[in-house]
């Protein structure tokens, strides 16, 4: 009887402690990292002059903000100006994983959409070097600035720039967002191409989180409960040793089997969505997205598609070998991905054939995008100094459905091939 009362008291006490800790963690245990005009952290600027552009960035401190003044030039294809804030000298950055979100207050003056990019550069010796900050992982998020409005950005919304992954040949194991060692934060203009004077005022940026993360606290509580449970099991083991050993063995096997199944399922899911050579989507990886885009398409804002096929690709394989052919395919996919808009989809459909899906795009717009891609491919440099062209078939996915649109685009591609290749053809209505 006394043993039962003692066990009941332990369970009740641990339950009260667990609830108290969870409440404390929810309403307290707050921590923050504030960066404002009074910061003593080193601040620098950069602009597209490094890339041959003509934009000029300057930073100054006002009474209330850090102010980036950018004289944007159209000399460079993707003009930009940036403020860099050194959080900690590399290779020793700041671990931001214990923070949940970023609160900030910015204002923006200038032409065009007031889009801003926030970069958190992570240093990892696996792919980073001290001398080249561009080798630090580019975790990024883009947003529209509303003057004077406090903005909250969850850290889990950050992603890694796909062009950076491709440019730096990052291994697949390091594709994910990593905020474990961040030496540098960058505030940048958000891809605006409007020349003129741009001014971004940063009143404050505050990283917010908990001294003890909810996951860690739950793990600690779980450990406490596990200790209690082990104590109970040991007491039961005294009486039911053989039976308990059997139960624990079966439970352990189930846990291991379940974990193995989850890992295998995740691995298969990830592999199934991407083409392993070009790292763009494959057919199965795009199915749900295209179904959603078809459902959202309207007569005035249709979903267009472009089939593009490398001309004489077999001759490249026959002349230079499949190794060069694979390099051509990888660069071809990278070229397509870097010259479409945000929200467009690039899919390797099979062999040297790729399909682009363009939401909210009318046929004449899709035709122009295809023509721009055709010119870019023709003018680009390719492995082994080979000359490369591609043919394009353009169609709109209408009420007749996906199969009809694919058939129409394929016929347009065939017409482009028949007319001499290196052409763009629009499917006939």
UniProtKB/TrEMBL annotation:
One of its GO terms (biological process) is cell adhesion involved in single-species biofilm formation. It catalyses: 2 GTP = 3',3'-c-di-GMP + 2 diphosphate. It holds the Pfam family GGDEF. The keyword Chloroplast does not apply. Keywords: Membrane, Transmembrane, Transmembrane helix. CDD domains: GGDEF. GO terms for cellular component: plasma membrane. SMART domains: GGDEF (SM00267). Residues 301-429 form the GGDEF domain. It comes from the Bacteria. Its EC number is 2.7.7.65. GO terms for molecular function: diguanylate cyclase activity. It is an enzyme of class 2 (transferase). InterPro entries: Diguanylate_Cyclase, GGDEF_dom, Nucleotide_cyclase, Rev_trsase/Diguanyl_cyclase. Gene3D superfamilies: 3.30.70.270. The chain crosses the membrane at residues 6-24, 217-238. This is diguanylate cyclase.
């Amino acid at each position: 009887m006394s043993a039962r009362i003692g066990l009941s008291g332990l369970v009740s006490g641990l339950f009260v402690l667990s609830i108290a800790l969870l409440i404390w963690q929810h309403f307290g245990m707050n921590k923050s990292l504030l960066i404002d005009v009074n910061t003593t952290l080193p601040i620098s600027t950069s602009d597209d002059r490094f890339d041959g552009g003509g934009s000029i960035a300057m930073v100054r401190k006002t009474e209330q903000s850090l102010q980036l003044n950018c004289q944007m030039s159209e000399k460079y294809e993707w003009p930009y100006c940036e403020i860099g804030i050194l959080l900690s000298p590399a290779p020793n950055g700041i671990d931001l994983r214990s923070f949940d979100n970023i609160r900030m207050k910015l204002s923006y003056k200038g032409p065009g959409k007031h889009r801003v990019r926030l970069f958190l550069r992570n240093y990892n010796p696996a792919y980073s070097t001290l001398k080249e900050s561009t080798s630090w992982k580019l975790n990024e998020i883009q947003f529209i600035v509303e003057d004077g409005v406090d903005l909250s950005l969850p850290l889990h919304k950050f992603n890694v720039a796909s062009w950076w992954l491709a440019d730096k040949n990052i291994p697949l194991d390091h594709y994910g967002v990593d905020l474990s060692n961040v030496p540098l934060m960058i505030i940048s203009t958000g891809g605006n191409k409007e020349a003129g004077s741009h001014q971004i005022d940063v009143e404050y940026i505050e990283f917010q989180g908990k001294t003890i993360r909810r996951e860690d606290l739950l793990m600690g509580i779980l450990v406490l409960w596990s200790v209690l449970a082990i104590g109970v099991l040991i007491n039961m083991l005294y009486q039911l040793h053989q039976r308990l050993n059997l139960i624990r063995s079966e439970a352990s096997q189930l846990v291991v089997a379940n974990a193995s199944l989850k890992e295998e399922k995740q691995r298969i899911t990830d592999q199934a969505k991407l083409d392993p050579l070009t790292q763009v989507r494959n057919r199965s990886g795009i199915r749900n997205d295209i179904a959603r885009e078809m459902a959202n398409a309207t007569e005035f804002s249709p979903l267009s598609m472009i089939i593009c096929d490398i001309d004489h690709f077999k001759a490249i394989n026959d002349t230079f070998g499949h190794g060069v052919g694979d390099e051509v395919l990888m660069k071809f996919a990278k070229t397509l991905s870097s010259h479409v808009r945000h929200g467009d989809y690039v899919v390797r459909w099979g062999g040297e054939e790729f399909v682009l899906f363009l939401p909210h795009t009318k046929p004449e717009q899709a035709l122009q995008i295809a023509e721009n891609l055709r010119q870019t491919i023709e003018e680009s440099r390719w492995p082994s100094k080979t000359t490369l062209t591609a043919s394009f078939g353009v169609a709109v996915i209408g009420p007749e459905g996906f199969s009809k649109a694919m058939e129409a685009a394929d016929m347009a591609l065939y017409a482009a091939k028949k007319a001499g290749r290196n052409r763009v053809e629009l499917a006939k209505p």
